[in-house]
Amino acid sequence: MPRHVFYSFHYEPDNWRVSQIRNIGKIEGNKAALDNRWEEVKEEGEAAVKRWIDAQLKGRSCTLVLIGSGTAKRKWIDYEIKESWRLKKGVVGIHIHKIKDRHQRASTKGANPFSHFTLGDDKKKFDQIVKTYDPPGADGKAVYGWIAQNITAIIDEAIEIRNSHS
């Protein structure tokens, strides 16, 4: 049974990498925003961007943050992470820097996008709760294979982790 996820990622540098992961076929996710539609939403202002993200989160049980070199600390990715957790969705990260872009280039490993959040009164670090995976393998083909083999279990575990922190 396909999992229904929200994909969170830094659009410009990583959309090609993300499209490869979308094609794995084991998960169903929000439709990718075309460049011109995303630009239209951004031009409408912050409230419009939030409405668009909120609409994309509906019907999803997990947010999959696909981590490229510049994903961490991006305003809208932070919003997607916080809102997903608030809505009791699973949250998980997978590094995708070794997967090649449309120019056949890999990128550098990005920082953990969960490390600058804290939760609750005890201010527990979010990266101590939410898992982040750096798939093994020397190249994008190996990383893709690892993601394809493990993606459903990773998503299921993220949902379980979220349910245990209600």
Could you list some keywords that capture this structure?
globular; single chain; 5-stranded parallel β-sheet; 166 residues; 42% helix; 5 helices; two-stranded antiparallel ribbon; alpha/beta
Characterise the protein shown here:
- Helix content is 42%, strand content 16%.
- The chain is an alpha/beta fold and 166 residues long.
- The chain has one domain (3-163): Rossmann fold (3-Layer(aba) Sandwich), CATH 3.40.50.
- β1, α1 (11-22) and β2 (27-29) form a beta-alpha-beta unit.
- The chain is globular and about 40 Å long.
- The two termini are 25 Å apart.
Overall number of strands: 7
Rg for CA atoms: 15 Å
SSE pattern, N- to C-terminal: EHEHHEHEEEEH
Output the CATH topology. Rossmann fold
Strand percentage: 15-25%
The low-confidence runs, each spanning 5 or more residues with pLDDT under 50, are: none
Strand order of the largest sheet: 2-1-3-4-7
Shape: globular
Class from helix and strand fractions: alpha/beta
- The CATH class label is Alpha Beta
- The CATH architecture can be given as 3-Layer(aba) Sandwich
Question: How far apart lie the N and C ends?
Answer: 25 Å
Into how many domains do the coordinates divide?
1
- Helix percent band: 40-55%
Largest sheet: 5 strands, parallel
- Mean pLDDT across all amino acids: 89
